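Posting this for the archive.
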Amino acid sequence: MQKRTFLLATLAAAVGLSLQGTAQASDYPNRPIELVVPNIATGSTDMAARAFAKYAEKRIGKPVVVVRISGAGGYNGSRAVREDKSSGYQVLYTHQGIIANYLTKVAPYSYDGFKVGPTVAEDATVGLYVSGKSGIKSIQDLLARARAEPGKLKAATEYGTYNHFMFLKLQKEQGVKFKMVESNGDAGRIPMLLSGTVDVIAKIYSGTQEYLKSGDFVLLGEPTGKRAPNAPEVPTYKEQGLDFTFPAYTFTLFFNQSTPQEIVDSWDKVAREVTSDPAYQKEVAELGMAWTYKSPQESAAAYASAQKLMAELVEGASPVAKQ
């Protein structure tokens, strides 16, 4: 009798939870939604998220508010969404930094600690920049100097970030060694290169044009298989005879594991509509990025591929010196 009562109670609880999830999904959304950006204001992720939010809320019918929860290389923001119990009212907007956090033991989970949603923008222009005073004019010049002076050239980065992994891949494949120097985010690298504190930085193309025009910086190329749509005037490394590529930043939506699949599917529909909107496409291009659409399944496969690549690089990673 007791066993039967226990089984009935368990079944009732399971049915109750199922009905609750269905009710939440059918009622969604009935209040504003937070799009959580785990990075600082005015960064590329923040700007891309704001563009997407503006067009998404027109289709959802409720405000989509960009909320920045920065710190710990993005871990604070991703953790907030992972621990959220609101079933779809907090959505994470981020990139492969979520993999980097896991592989460098900043976070105890990776992209697959969430339900992966659609990808809505990308930036493949994380190129290498040197000072205009350096005498370095090409990627081949940089590598020649790095081989001549092993461990001497200083590269600005932050341990475990996406651009750090790009330096690790370049070192591994080209047999060179840089001295990694800690920088204060993407914006912090520019003054470091201007002042001569470092010799090379990795940065997206957007926000560097004035330094290139003045001759303060030299852009050595982009790590893309073909020229990036948001920087068609910049040659790839392959065009310069160097077989070196690195995956683009992809800006993707992630959901707490408890989020009903119907809600994730509804965001996929919104993403398809937004990324098909010429106004959104134009706004993303004006930010110096490129619009794209990848389904949740395509996004998950791309993140799995990126994690495999990055996992092979993280072992024995160089320490990053503090300034």
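The chain has eleven helices and eleven strands. The radius of gyration is 22 Å.
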